[in-house]
Amino acid sequence: MQSLFSGGAIFYTLDGSQPDFSGTPYTGSFVISTTSTLRAIAYSSDFSQSVLSAPLNIIVIPTFYLFTYAPGGGSIVLNPATQPYASNSVVTAIALPDSGWTFIGWSGDATGTNPTNNITMNGDKNVQAVFGTTLSTTVAGSGALLAYPIAPLYAYGATVQITPVPNPGNYFGLWGNAASGNQNPLYFAVTTANPTVSSLFAALPVNQVALTVIYGAGGYVAVNPSANKYPVGNTNVLTAVPDIGQQFVGWSGDVNSTANPPSLVMNTSKVVTANFTGLNLGSIKQGTNMIFTWPTNSTEDFVLQSSSNLGSSAVWNTVTPSPVVAGGTYVVTNSMSGTSKFFRLMYPW
Predict the structure, then answer these.
(1) How far apart are the first and last CA of the chain?
(2) 107 phi/psi in degrees, rounded to 5
(3) Where do the structural domains in the chain lie, given as residue ranges?
(4) What is the DSSP letter of 305?
């Protein structure tokens, strides 16, 4: 702003009110971030004269950024490409798959499976394009491969569990093509287009047997000792470990038991499946009490903790009520309020 008065002063307001010398003094350029009505008054150096400007309506249009992410298998093109974008403008995001990859869908602030997505910029946005590819398996020798999960396309970075299942009299030897080593099962990360995983099966040597352990969603099995073939009569320990929110319900196949670990003597080749299911967590009304009990011989080593979720990012807080002895057990009564949804007993290490 400029004044016709040499050595004079300028005062202004941004809310449309009439300014005077009690307004904001103008000392140089300034930033206006919201829609405003600017009014200014210029005084002579002795304040004997003044000139009031006409109101100036300033409309500020907010701008926003569109952040894109494609972990692999393709890219995202924006039209228009120049950022930031004016509020409520429409930006077209186009998912472009690389050779051998297929666009699966959008995530984040965009949804659907159309590779062309129009996004209204009413705030900062984050969009991710997910690309997928096929996974093939081949077998050399006598056996088969079980893949979990089974899907027509696997997203970039997805992990596929591949379990070799030898036919009777055979054992799994090695992985080939896109995989290597003899890890069993194989956890294969899909990061290249149309990979092929191959397996080699061979005939068992005399007095050797094979152990195949199958498991899918819900947990995993620790095998001790872990090998692709064992001497006849070898004793193996299988320990089923459920994921959070899951429970182990039993073995099937050549072991029919709910024991964990079961007694397993390798007198012949065996195929064993571990079965898991979701926990029945139940429900309780907010504001009512939940009673937790456990044997008195363990209370010195345990604390009760609560959390709002069961994910890997869960934050566990110690429940403050002190346990009391009742009928041979320790009891904690906790009000089901706030974010206390899940509970666990833990060593206070």
Answers:
(1) 67
(2) -140, 170
(3) 9-58, 63-133, 135-203, 204-280, 289-346
(4) E
Tokens encoding 61: 């249009």
* 300 phi/psi in degrees, rounded to 5: -65, -20
Q: Are 128 and 74 in contact (CB under 8 A)?
A: no
pLDDT band at 280 (very low <50, low <70, confident <90, very high): low
How, if at all, do strands 24-25 and 9-13 pair?
Answer: antiparallel
Choose the weakest-confidence range: 2-6, 128-132, 258-262, 315-319. Answer: 315-319
CB contact at 8 A, 125 and 76: no
Sign of CA dihedral 183, 188, 191, 193: positive
When pLDDT is averaged across residues 97-107 and rounded to a whole number, the result is: 97
**Measuring CA to CA, how many Å separate 196 from each of 118, 136, 175, 284, 335?**
36, 5, 11, 49, 54
Q: Collect all residues with Cβ–Cβ distance below 8 Å to 156 and sequence separation of at least 6.
A: 71, 72, 73, 101, 130, 131, 132, 133, 190, 191
Look up residue 12 and give its two tokens: 């202004």
By C-alpha distance, which of 264, 268, 262, 200 is closest to 231? 268
Alpha carbon separation from 248 to 148, 182, 216, 281 (Å, rounded): 18, 27, 12, 15
DSSP 15: B
Mean pLDDT, residues 285-310 taken together: 61
pLDDT exceeds 80 at position 296: no
Question: Token pair 């008054």 is at which residue?
Answer: 41
Asked if 266 and 211 count as a contact pair (C-beta separation under 8 A), the reply is yes
